[in-house]
Amino acid sequence: MSPVIEVDAIERRFKGPGGEPLHAVAGVSLGVEPGEVYGFLGPNGAGKTTLVRMLVTLLRPTGGTARVAGFDIVREPGKVRASIGVTLQEAALDPLMTGFELLQLQATLHGLRKAQAGDKADELLERVDLVRARDARVGTYSGGMRRRLDLAMSLIHEPSVLFLDEPTTGLDPISRKVLWDEVRSLNDSGTTVFLTTQYLEEADALADRVGIIADGRLVAEGTPAELKSDVGASRLEVTIHDAAQHEAARAKLAAHGQLVEPPTGVTFCLKLKPGETQLAPYVVELDQAGVTVDRIDLVEPSLDDVFLLKTGHHFPDDD
What we know:
By secondary structure, this protein is an alpha/beta fold. It has helices at residues 48-55, 77-83, 99-109, 114-127, 143-154, 173-188, 200-206, 224-231, 246-254, 280-288, 303-311, and strands at 5-15, 21-32, 37-41, 63-68, 71-72, 84-87, 161-165, 192-197, 209-214, 217-222, 235-239, 259-260, 268-271, 295-299.
């Protein structure tokens, strides 16, 4: 079965302040299989939104090719648009219309008759849990409600491929969970989902496969489990508040293996040997050296570790 999204060395160049070329996307190649949730993970400014805007035909690539739902994004943009649903970061929702009116209008624009459009609007309002806000003006909706309404509008024509560009950015945990559940439900019904996100947890929880982008380039790709297995063993994270004890702690920990860059708020990070799971020996040894440990954690590999391995620095703080 052919990939439903095929991207081959696609790029997008812009002119810099001095006329020099700047690559927002620099030769990205990837494939997304039918029925897959593909998580496109990267920090702000990495090129995620630029790639999505090209794939949904809102931005013309300056190099490479791509096909979505079997259609070329440059030569057959109309056919691409008819096959996809899109939820971008900024939704253009009329604040003076009600949720029902907006969905009914969208359904009418897709060719449904008035009665069918009303039925479809009510069906989607129920699906995204907005029935109680059916007749409220969109201007009164919370951020989470707006994102759910925007998602419902992208589903009017039952697309085979759904693009979600950072759909949960800025949402509270409850609204984020509601959207997660809806993404899972859509995927269970056979919809292919291309999800961009800056949240490590979101990519890990939702995606069948993850592509990690940094500075416009795809630096890693695979299932979350595959990517984390590339990192290797677990690590020991040790926090010691007394700076006078740092050198003694460093010497003791370094004797057991490689110290690597610690995440924010952690003093030392030690790569453990495969299969090593005991904390007590380290606590005892540090205590005998006169070091007071404020916190010690055994941490399994994460997508942040993958990002560190591929780029040399930790993933920026999600918050």
